[in-house]
Amino acid sequence: MHIEAYKTNVKTKKDASLLVAYLQFIISDCIINFDRQGKENILKIETNRDIKEMVYSVFNKQGFHCQIIYT
Q1: What band does 47 get if pLDDT is binned at 50, 70 and 90?
Q2: Non-local CB neighbours of 37 within 8 Å, separated by 6+ positions
Q3: What is the DSSP track for 24-64?
Q4: Coil, strand, or helix at residue 37?
């Protein structure tokens, strides 16, 4: 498994929880965490496959933006 990290524009805990729920529904074989400690609101996903396009799609459909930091 490897970790993918995304910088996001998510501001609230409610929005973060909603996005994690959508992502877990679509990508059920991953471990998903939101780190809202700092200003950057980092989404971290532990996965065995390429899921970048699915993550971008969920964020875009919900009106949010994310950018991959590292894989």
Answers
A1: very high
A2: none
A3: HHHSTTSEEEEE-SSTT-EEEEEESS--HHHHHHHHHHTT-
A4: coil
